[in-house]
């Protein structure tokens, strides 16, 4: 009898972190661990056990099985201490135990936890309550885990919370998780959403879960986004009064103040936050953004006079310092590379700026919006700092050819049109300029103008395959 095989068969039927298809490359484990450590200290909820449960999985990924077991013991103890907890909340914990012991070759212990899971299901089945047997706790914890693990999973997290709410519509935690998932999806640059659903969801979550200061700050930010800043500020101030030292609350409050132009207030809060989480890439990035805003607003701290060169340089160096720390603590933070490169540009450290742009472009699996942003800013750097029109065109085209509607793409389209028309003023037979206008009009779906300019471009550069393919495609489209 093969004990390992017999034990393994039922493991894949368990609903837990090991069967939720969490891709290691899609979750920065050190960053997740930092957030979980913060929540262990500051989170006030009956579902705090989920923090320890996810930490157990992270420790397993890192190869620390001893610590993983300790985390599961903490999760189990928290569940058992709360007499109001449904036994269903132990299902994920026991599933994780079964998997961990299997990986440690302790097959008898693994089988013991498989049986514990089966016994809980039998207990729930006998309750004759379909809502209990549907186990909203599992869907809720899966949604919460996906929300914490990676932005790639926000849509899936939303669906999990929807399933949890079908059986437990008044549950404060699942309402909060659902609101946060929808809010984060709405913040994605290319997420198609006709309304602002998260506003009502965040309000409901705040009503059901008044102790959760983090969700209040998100509601404040949403109201600010909808030009209801005064109303949003009330929620921000209420959250800060409620938990003045909660790192997540401080981060979101600082974001609100920064967007409101209250830079000194934002920095004051962020300095408090960074004293609590000195290795938080998110906090250092926000501090860098605040100093960047000071630079480009061109004002001094306490008056409306223009920044002196000395003050400007001081703020540039502070921004660089914090953006560098951001990448030291999270070297996969795409936007921080662009911000740091742009700040090196302001310091006229062009070699360093170019290195950062090239470094982030070398990343595998960059999403389209990130590629557009990088190429847009790299193009501006090439055009204005390196005075290289050809390199600027290269990067602007790269961004434009990614078929996602973003501000970065629109800006690249404008720059290409301006550059093309400027080149044609110098030389009306410039095939590159004519081809660029053909591309711009093609993207704008101005078919007749695109055909006209590609034909002109081919007149002066008849062997250009790119122009020939584009012209053929456009003429085919025009015929249909």
UniProtKB/TrEMBL annotation:
Keyword entries, A-Z: Repeat, TPR repeat
Q: SMART domains under this entry?
A: TPR
- Give the Gene3D superfamilies listed for this entry: Tetratricopeptide repeat domain (1.25.40.10)
Q: Which PROSITE patterns match?
A: TPR (PS50005)
From what superkingdom does this record's organism come? Eukaryota
Where do the TPR repeat units fall?
247-280, 431-464
Q: Where are the transmembrane segments?
A: none
Q: Name one Pfam family in it.
A: TPR_12
> Which InterPro entries does the entry mention?
TPR-like_helical_dom_sf, TPR_2, TPR_rpt
Q: Does the keyword Repeat apply?
A: yes
Which GO annotations describe the biological process of this protein?
Answer: defense response to virus
Cellular component terms per the entry's GO annotation: cytosol
Q: Which family does it belong to?
A: Belongs to the IFIT family.
For this entry, the protein name equals Interferon-induced protein with tetratricopeptide repeats 5
């Amino acid at each position: 009898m093969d004990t390992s095989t017999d034990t393994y068969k039922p493991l894949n039927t368990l609903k837990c972190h090991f069967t939720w298809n969490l891709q290691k490359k899609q979750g920065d484990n050190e960053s997740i661990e930092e957030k979980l450590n913060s929540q262990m200290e500051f989170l006030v909820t009956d579902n705090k056990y989920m923090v320890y449960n996810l930490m157990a999985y992270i420790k397993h990924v890192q190869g620390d099985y001893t610590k993983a077991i300790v985390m599961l013991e903490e999760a189990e103890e928290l569940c058992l201490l709360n007499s109001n907890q449904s036994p269903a909340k132990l299902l994920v914990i026991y599933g994780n135990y079964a998997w961990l012991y299997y990986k440690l070759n302790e097959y008898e212990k693994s089988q013991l936890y498989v049986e514990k899971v089966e016994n809980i299901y039998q207990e729930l089945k006998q309750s004759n309550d379909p809502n209990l047997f549907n186990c909203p706790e599992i869907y809720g914890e899966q949604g919460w885990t996906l929300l914490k693990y990676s932005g790639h999973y926000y849509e899936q997290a939303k669906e999990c919370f929807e399933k949890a709410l079908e059986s437990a519509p008044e549950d404060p935690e699942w309402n909060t998780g659902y609101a946060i998932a929808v809010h984060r999806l709405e913040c994605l640059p290319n997420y198609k959403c006709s309304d602002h659903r998260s506003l009502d969801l965040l309000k409901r979550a705040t009503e059901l879960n008044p102790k959760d200061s983090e969700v209040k700050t998100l509601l404040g930010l949403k109201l600010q986004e909808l030009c209801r800043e005064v109303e949003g500020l009330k929620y921000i101030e209420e959250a800060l009064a409620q938990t003045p030292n909660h790192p997540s609350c401080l981060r979101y409050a600082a974001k609100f103040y920064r967007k409101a132009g209250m830079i000194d207030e934002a920095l004051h809060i962020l300095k408090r936050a960074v004293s609590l989480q000195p290795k938080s890439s998110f906090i250092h990035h926000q501090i860098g953004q605040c100093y960047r805003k000071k630079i480009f607003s061109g004002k001094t701290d306490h008056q409306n006079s223009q920044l002196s060169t000395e003050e400007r340089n001081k703020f540039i160096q502070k921004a660089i310092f914090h953006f560098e720390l951001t990448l030291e603590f999270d070297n996969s933070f795409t936007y921080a590379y662009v911000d740091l490169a742009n700040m090196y540009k302001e310091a006229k450290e062009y070699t360093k700026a170019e290195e950062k742009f090239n470094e982030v472009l070398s990343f595998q699996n960059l999403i389209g919006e990130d590629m557009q942003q990088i190429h847009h800013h790299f193009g501006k750097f090439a055009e204005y700092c390196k005075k290289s029109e050809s390199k600027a065109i290269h990067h602007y085209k790269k961004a434009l050819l990614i078929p996602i509607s973003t501000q970065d793409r629109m800006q690249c389209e404008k720059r290409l049109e301006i550059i093309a028309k400027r080149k044609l003023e110098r030389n009306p037979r410039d095939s590159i300029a004519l081809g660029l206008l053909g591309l711009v009009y093609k993207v704008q779906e101005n078919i007749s103008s695109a055909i006209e300019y590609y034909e002109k471009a081919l007149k002066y550069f008849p062997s250009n395959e790119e122009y020939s393919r584009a012209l053929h495609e456009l003429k085919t489209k025009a015929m249909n």
